[in-house]
């Protein structure tokens, strides 16, 4: 399989000095922070404005979480729903 078609080695990350997943892992970043790094790292070579908007969405989510606006929703299942 050609390298540029390999889904485990996407071309839009190949020009980076540090792979986003390596940076995310070594810095023990969480899901939201990791996605911010991913989208910011690739926006110019893959998703353009859409990737910037995705990164902003994760940043806005974290800001709201820190400010206390996003509280995790707890869903209680009824006994019948546990199947």
How would you describe the overall organization of this protein?
With 83 residues, the chain is mostly helical. The chain has one domain (3-82). It has 4 helices and no strands. The protein is elongated and about 50 Å long.
* Residues in helices, as a percent range: 40-55%
How many domain regions?
1
Basic shape? elongated
* Rg of Cα set: 17 Å
Range of strand content: under 5%
**Structural class estimated from helices and strands:** mainly alpha
Number of strands: 0
- Compute the average pLDDT: 84
The unreliable regions are none
TL;DR?
The protein has 83 residues and is mainly α. It has four helices and no strands. The chain has one domain (3-82).
Provide keyphrases for this structure.
83 residues; mainly alpha
């Amino acid at each position: 399989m050609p390298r540029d078609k390999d889904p485990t080695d996407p071309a839009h990350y190949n020009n980076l000095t540090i792979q986003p997943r390596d940076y995310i892992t070594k810095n023990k970043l969480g899901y939201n922070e990791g996605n911010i790094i991913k989208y910011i790292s690739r926006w110019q070579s893959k998703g353009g404005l859409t990737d910037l908007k995705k990164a902003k969405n994760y940043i806005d989510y974290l800001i709201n979480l820190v400010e206390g606006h996003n509280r995790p929703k707890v869903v209680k299942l009824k006994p019948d729903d546990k199947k």
